[in-house]
Design goal:
By secondary structure, the chain is of the alpha/beta class. It has 6 helices and 19 strands. The longest helix has 32 residues. The model has no long low-confidence stretch (mean pLDDT 93).
Length: 322
């Protein structure tokens, strides 16, 4: 029989944003429920070395960090439930989410932390060499390629920004683009073309990533005009063709931008629906870091607590007046 789970704070998503919201919500006595979704722990569970999360002098492992966050959330009173939300009702509080299991989750407030996924090329070697030279985040992993040659794949703002960022570490950066012109903003293109460490391979598509047990050694390319196959040796490859926010559930219910990210009130995690908050990569297409996701998760919990306190105070006044 399906079960209805009720809570003051319902959190959908269990990456750094969702779990930080849970920690703060639990400490505020809201007894949050976290519905974990298809990828419990978020993108960090498929990340190996993490060197930029504050508080750890040595490199840590992404899955371990998420295990610790979850344990902390549970320790202070969070209920972790394994289910995938397939439908959601946001007409008013309490908000209702329906799981794939048939269970119903009701929350007086709702925190959306469903994250975003990097778009991948889907070519041979990509999955096998993920974390072994192939990455989708230069900001996260560029430090590991100090003094080495790397390639960046893509032609939009993301690719150009990643290429420029990784010049801080790499000795040589090759941008690979399947067309003969970039889609990035002109100011970014100007900076890229002027950088002495950067070269560009036009009309080239990645055919496969080449390497073995020791990691990536090169990228096989196909010329999109002639069909000719060539190989570029490299120590690292960054796939930078954009991200896809997990917002399918919220289309037609919340305001989304042209890329599908949830629109929030500037400087806050507040959506246009009172009591519904969005945090982490589902609303952030600029930074996309674990630490910024955690920060917005904290903000969502604090704002949710204020929302409930204001609502409860108003209800009490009405009762007394009546």
């Amino acid at each position: 029989m399906p079960t209805t789970h009720k809570t003051r704070m319902l959190i959908v998503g269990s990456g750094p944003a969702g779990l930080t919201a849970a920690i703060y919500g639990a400490r505020a006595g809201m007894e949050p429920i976290v519905v974990q979704g298809l990828q419990p722990g978020g993108q960090l569970t498929i990340t190996t070395d993490v060197e930029n999360y504050p508080g750890f002098r040595d490199v840590i492992q992404g899955p371990w960090l998420m295990q610790e966050m979850q344990a902390q959330a549970e320790h202070v009173g969070t209920r972790m439930l394994w289910d995938t939300i397939t439908a959601i009702e946001m007409d008013g509080s309490p908000f209702r989410a329906i799981g794939d299991s048939g269970d119903i989750y009701e929350g007086d407030c709702l925190v959306i932390a469903t994250g975003a996924q990097a778009r991948w090329l889907g070519v041979p070697g990509e999955a096998e060499l993920g974390g072994k030279g192939v990455s989708a985040c230069a900001t996260c992993d560029g430090f590991f390629y100090r003094g080495k040659k790397v390639v960046v794949i893509g032609g939009g703002n993301t690719a150009v920004e990643e290429a420029l960022y990784v010049t801080n570490h790499a000795s040589e950066v090759v941008l690979i683009h399947r067309r003969d012109s970039l889609r990035a903003e002109r100011i970014l293109q100007d900076r890229l073309f002027a950088h002495p460490k950067v070269s560009i391979l036009w009309n080239k598509a990645v055919d496969q990533f080449v390497g073995g047990d020791k990691g990536l050694t090169g990228v096989a390319l196909r010329d999109t005009v002639t069909g000719e196959i060539s190989e570029v040796p490299t120590d690292g490859a960054f796939v930078a063709i954009g991200h896809a926010p997990a917002t399918e559930l919220f289309k037609g219910k919340l305001d989304l931008d042209e890329a599908g990210y949830i629109i929030v009130e500037p400087g806050t995690p507040k959506t246009q629906i009172a009591g519904v908050f969005a945090c982490g990569d589902v609303m952030d297409h600029t930074y996309r870091q674990a630490v910024t996701a955690a920060g917005t998760g904290c903000m969502a919990a604090l704002d949710a607590e204020r929302f409930l306190a204001t609502r409860d105070f108003a209800a009490t006044r009405e009762t007394v007046a009546g």
